[in-house]
């Protein structure tokens, strides 16, 4: 069995890179998605983007309900037709303990591919739309820290500095 995937943590620079378009739909891609679901569930998440496990490709998995039949995989997602604004609290598996209010589009459309390369065209609102936006941000190298307002940045300054220090120690000061 493959080794369990590790979640990449803030401020790892891999999280800030824009991800590459996936051109080949292979069995390896399907296996990666299956492993991502395991890692996401282990951390009690609702979504996980490939950059969060150190893979710089445009792929994310999600499950908004926790029911296995609601597992979704999106390859090369493009979000359009954003409507309205909705503010809600978000967290991120790559920034443990951070919870901040973020304004996102209330409703939008997504065009993507499934693991076989078949087109997906969906519209969502509320929580699902929020997850799509959060995970697509990861594919574009955008983190919650980039979307936080000034007050949230001040309120979470200590947490972020602690994570930065832990990363510095873990990487030998890099």
**Helix proportion of residues, in percent?**
25-40%
Counting structural domains, the number is 1
Largest sheet: 5 strands, antiparallel
Low-confidence stretches: none
Structure overview:
This protein is of the alpha+beta class. Helix content is 31%, strand content 28%. It contains five helices and five strands; from the N terminus they run H-E-E-E-E-E-H-H-H-H. It has a five-stranded antiparallel β-sheet, with helices on both faces. Strand 3 (72-91) and strand 4 form a beta hairpin. The longest helix has 16 residues, at 27-42. The mean pLDDT is 95.
Blueprint of the fold:
Blueprint: H1 27-42, E1 47-49, E2 59-62, E3 72-91, E4 99-113, E5 119-125, H2 126-139, H3 144-147, H4 150-155, H5 157-170
Antiparallel strand pairs: 1-2, 2-3, 3-4, 4-5
Short précis:
With 174 residues, the chain is an alpha+beta fold. The protein has five helices and five strands. It has one domain: Peptide deformylase (Peptide Deformylase), CATH 3.90.45.10.
Annotation keywords:
single chain; Peptide Deformylase; 5 helices; alpha+beta; 174 residues
């Amino acid at each position: 069995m493959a080794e369990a995937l590790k979640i990449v943590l803030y401020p790892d620079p891999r999280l800030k890179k824009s991800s590459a378009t996936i051109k080949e739909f292979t069995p390896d891609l399907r296996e990666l998605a299956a492993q991502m679901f395991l890692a996401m569930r282990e951390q009690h998440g609702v979504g996980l983007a490939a950059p969060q496990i150190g893979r710089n490709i445009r792929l994310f998995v999600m499950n908004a309900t926790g029911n296995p039949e609601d597992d979704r995989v999106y390859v090369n997602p493009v979000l359009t037709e954003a409507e309205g604004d909705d503010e809600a609290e978000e967290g991120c598996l790559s920034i443990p303990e951070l919870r901040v209010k973020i304004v996102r589009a209330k409703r939008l459309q997504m065009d993507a591919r499934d693991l076989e390369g078949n087109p997906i065209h969906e519209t969502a609102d509320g929580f699902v739309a929020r997850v799509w936006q959060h995970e697509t941000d990861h594919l574009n190298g955008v983190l919650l820290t980039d979307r936080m307002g000034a007050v949230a940045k001040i309120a979470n300054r200590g947490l972020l500095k602690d994570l930065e220090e832990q990363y510095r120690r873990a990487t030998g000061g890099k």
